[in-house]
Amino acid sequence: MSKERKMTLTLPKEELMSSGHLACQGCGATLAMRYALKALGQKTILCIPACCWSVIDGPFPHSSLDVPIYHCAFETAASSASGVRAGLDMMGDTETTVMAWGGDGGTFDIGIQALSGAAERNEDLIYACYDNEAYMNTGIQRSSATPLGAWTTTTPVKHYKKERKKDMIGILAAHNIPYLATASIAYPEDMVKKFKKAKDIHGTRFIHIYAPCPTGWKSRPDDTVKLARLAVQTGYFPLYEIENGEKWTLNLKLKERKPITDYLKLQGRFRHLKEEEINLIQAEVEANYQKILKKCGL
Amino acid sequence: MSKKKDDKRIIFNSEKEMPLVAMSLGSMLYNKTGAWRNIKPVIDLSKCIKCGICWKFCPDTSIDIVDEWPQVNYDYCKGCGICAEECPEKCIVMVEEEK
Amino acid sequence: MKKVIMGNHALSYGAMLARAQVIAAYPITPQTQVVELLSEMCADGTLNAKFIKVESEHSAMAACLGASMAGARTFTATSAQGLALMHEMLHWASGGRMPVVMGDINRAMAPGWSIWTDQNDSLSQRDTGWIQFYCSSNQEVVDTVIQAYKISEKLMIPSMVILDAFALSHTYEVVEIPEQAKVDAYLPPFNPPYRLSSDDPHAFGGLTAPEHYMELRYKLQKDMEKVPALVEETGREYEKTFGRYLGQVENYLCDGAELVFVTSGTAGYTARVVVDELRKQGIKAGNLRIKLFRPFPFEQVRTILSKVPKVAVLDRNISYGHHGVFYQEVKSAIYRQPVQPAIFGFIAGLGGRDIAREDFKEITDYTLKNNRPQEEIIWIGVKK
Fold first, then answer.
1. End-to-end alpha-carbon separation of chain B, Å?
2. Domain map of chain B by residue range?
3. Per-residue pLDDT for C334 more than 90?
4. Which of A47, A184, C92, C193 is the most exposed place for a label (fewest CB within 10 A)?
C-alpha cells in the first residue's frame, strides 16, 4: 500500500468521545455514542439517566465527552430533556440539539411514562435508546427488552426468559412522532445518516440502537460488531425508519436471512436453549420480519 | 472553569477548591485504560489497505490516524480485539501482553 | 394595585411577577387553580414562559430541573401525593443546586383519600435539602414567592412556598399585587454560576466517589446555614420597596408572655385572634408563628422562647412513633439553653379538621394547669 494514499474514512473524523472512559472491553454502547456524536456534532446537550453510560462517562470531576451532559434520574431522560429544551428556547438557543440517551431499562421500563408523555407532546428532542437487552449496569438483570430465551441473573437458566421482547418501536410508532429509526453499531454509516437526518427534523425523534454487551451476553469482546451485524443479517433486528408513524422504510433488504443459530451460538446467554426452543425463536424472528416487510409495503 | 482536555487528573485538596455541584472540569484522558489489557493488537502495515475499518470500530477511540496510517494508542487500547476481528485483510493480530 | 384573590392565585401572581421562564406542572386538587391561571397567563402573553404540561409530578420536577440547568427560572406547584411522587427529584434539585421555586398546597396523605389540609406532605420532605416557608395569608404567599427566588438563586438551593389546602388555597383575601417594575428591581434575572451550554461543556451530576461526595454535602449544609440571615436581609429589603417585612418567624406579643403558642400556616392566624382574647381575659399569651421551617430558625426561636415559662406547640402533622414535627424542632432548638421553658406538644387538625378557637382554649387550659406535659402527645379533638 502506497504511503501517499489517504486512509478511507466513511464517518466524520471529529471525535467528541475521548479515550480513558470506563466502558468494558468491546462495549457496543460506547460505539453507539461515538457514532451519534459524530453525526450530531458539538452543539448537542445530552440527558443521560442511570444506565451504563452514567458510569462510562467517568467520575466527577471528569468526563469523556466534549458535550454538556446532564446526568439525570433513571426515569427522567425524556422529561429532563423536555425541560432542557424549554430552558434553552427561553435562553434564545434554538440551535443546540437536545438528546436523551438511555439504556433499554431506562427506556422500555422505568422511563416509558416520561417518554410517552414527551412523545405525545411532540417535544423537540432526540431520544436515543442503546439497547443491550438487560440491566447491565446493575449486573445483568432482566428488562422488558430482554429477548425470549435469554439468560440473565434474574432469569436463570432453569427459568430463562419466557416472554417476548417489548415492541418499543410499535409503541412509539403509535405516538405518530415525526421520526423513528432502528440503527446498529455494525452499520455506523447508516447510523450516522439517521442521526443527521433526525437532527434536521423538529419534534420527537426516537432512535433505537442495537448495542451488544459482551459482559452481559457472555460473548467475546471481539465479537461485538459481528453480533450486531448478525442481528441484522438474521432479521432479528432489521434496520428501518418510520416517518410520522405511517411511512415505513426498510433500509437494508436481505435477499436471504442467516439462521438465528448463527447469532445465538456466539452468546453464552442462549447456551441452554434446546432445538425446539431455538425453532420457536426462529419462528418469532421470521414473523416479526414479515410484519415489518408488510408495513414497509414489501 | 473551562473543561481541560489533557491527561492530568484533577484532585481537590479541600472543599473550597470544589465547585458547588458534581461537574466535570477535565477529561478522562488521565485514565490510561491500556493497563486493563491482556492481549494487544499489532498491525502489520505491509498488509494494510487503509480501509479505516479498525479506526471506525474502535470502542475506545484508541486507533489514531498518523500520517495516513492506523496506529494503536497503547495508552488506552483495552485489547478488546474488535479491530483484529473486523480487519478485512487480517493484518491485525492479537498477541499476549508481556507483563 | 389591590386585588381580591384566592391563595392559589397568589402563587400564580408570585410566579408571574418573578418572571418564571419555564413552568412544568401536573394537576392535583387543591393546587389546580395555580397552574390554570399560569396557563392562561402564558397563553395570553402576560407571562413570557414555556408551560410544559407533563404527564406526572415526577416529570414536572424533572422538567423544571432540566430547564433550570439550561439557565431558566422555573416554577411548579403541587400537593400531597404529587409531592410524594416528586420526592426523588427533590433530592435531585438540592443536590444539583438548582434553585427551583415550588408552591405546595398542604394536603393530607392518602389512604384514606383526603383532599383537606395537614402538613404531613411537606414535612415528609424536610430532609430533602429544600428551603421551606409556611404562609398564613395570601399576601404573604405572593411576597414570599418573590423573596424565595431571590434567596434560592443567591444560594442555589430550591424553595418550597407552602400554604394550607382550602383554608388558604381557596380563601379569597385582599392582596396588594406588587408593581412589576419594582419586582424587577428587587429580583434581577437568573444568572447561574454554571449551566448546560455547548460553549462551555460540563457533565453535571456524574458518578461521585466517597472522596468527593461528603464535601459537596458539606457545602450544601453551609449554604443552608446562610438562609436565616439572608431571609432577614432580603426581607428588610422587601420592606423598603414594598412596605412589608418578610421574616423567619412572626413574633406576636411573645415578649414578656406567660404562655406562647408555636404555630404555623393558617393556624397561626387563628392563634393571633386567640391571643387577643386571652389578653383581654388577663392571660399574657403570645404567638410565635414559624414561617421558615427549613432551615430551622434556631436563633430566633431560642431567643424568643427562652424567656417564656410555658410553650404550647401546635402541630397539624405527626411523625409516627415520635411527636409532632414542630414540637421536635422547638425542643431541639431549646436544648442548649440554660433556662428552658416547659414545652407542650399538641396535635390537632389532621386531614383538614378545623382548628377552632375552642381548641386553643383546650390547649391553653392544659398548658396553664400542668407544670409539665403529662403525655408525649396531647391530642386535641380526637373522639376517644
1. 39
2. 31-96
3. yes
4. C193
**CA C246, C248, C249 angle in degrees (round to 5)?**
100
Domains in chain C: boundaries: 2-240, 249-379
Residues of C in contact with B15 (CB under 8 A): 215, 218-219
Superfamily of domain A28-295: Thiamin diphosphate (ThDP)-binding fold, Pyr/PP domains (3.40.50.970)
Judge whether C2-240 and C249-379 match in fold: yes
DSSP letter at C29 equals T
Q: Is there a contact between C69 and A82 if contact means CB atoms under 8 Å apart?
A: no
What one-letter code names the amino acid at A257? Answer: R
Candidates 3.40.50.880, 3.30.530.20, 3.90.1200.10, 3.40.50.970; CATH matching C2-240: 3.40.50.970
Domain boundaries, chain A: 28-295
Contact A212, A268 (CB under 8 A): no
pLDDT tens figures, A61-75: 999 999 999 999 999
Per-residue confidence (pLDDT) for residue B5, from 0 to 100: 75
Residue B96: phi, psi to the nearest 5? -55, 140
Which positions in chain B touch A220 (Cβ < 8 Å)?
81
CATH code of the domain made up of B31-96: 3.30.70.20
What are the start-end ranges of the H helices in A57-98? 77-90
Name residue, grid cell 491527561: B7
Supply the pTM of this predicted model: 0.97
Mean of pLDDT values over B60-82: 97
Q: Which of A6, A69, A224 is nearest residue B68 as measured by Cβ atoms?
A: A6
| Type of residue numbered A280 | L
Residue A85 · residue A45 · CB < 8 Å: no
pLDDT at C304: 97
Single out the residue of C68, C71, B74, C201 nearest to residue A63, CA to CA: C201
Amino acid at C183: V
B22 contacts C215? CB cut-off 8 A: no
Query: At residue A193, what are phi and psi to the nearest 5 degrees?
Result: -60, -40
Q: Which three cell numbers stand for residue C108?
A: 393530607
- Say whether C59 and A117 touch across the interface (CB within 8 A): yes
Alpha-helical regions (H) of chain C = 7-17, 32-43, 57-69, 80-95, 120-123, 138-155, 180-186, 210-224, 227-242, 267-280, 298-305, 325-334, 357-369
Q: Which residues are CB-contacts of C163 (< 8 A; sequence separation ≥ 6)? A: C7, C10, C11, C103, C104, C105, C106, C134, C135, C141, C169, C265, C266
Instruction: Answer whether C206 sits within 8 Å of B24, measured CB to CB.
Output: yes
Question: Cell for C380?
Answer: 386535641
Q: Which of A6, A64, A69 sits opposite B27 (nearest CB)?
A: A64
Residue B98's pLDDT is 81
Closest CB to A19: pick one of B18, B73, B85.
Answer: B73
Average pLDDT in the C222-250 region?
98
Give pLDDT, residue B1. 34
- What is the b/e burial string over C233-245, where b = at least 16 CB atoms within 10 angstroms of the residue's CB? ebbeebeeebeee
**If residue B84 lies in a helix (H) or strand (E), which one and from where to where?**
helix B82-86
Query: The domain C249-379: what is its CATH number?
Result: 3.40.50.920
Cell 402576560 locates to C46
C-alpha cell at A176: 405518530
- Measured over the CA atoms of residue A238, residue A23, residue A41 and residue A85, the dihedral's sign is positive
Nearest C-alpha of chain B: how many angstroms from A232? 16
Q: Estimate the crossing angle of helix A112-120 against helix C57-69, to 10 degrees.
A: 70
Chain C residue closest in CA terms to A123:
C52
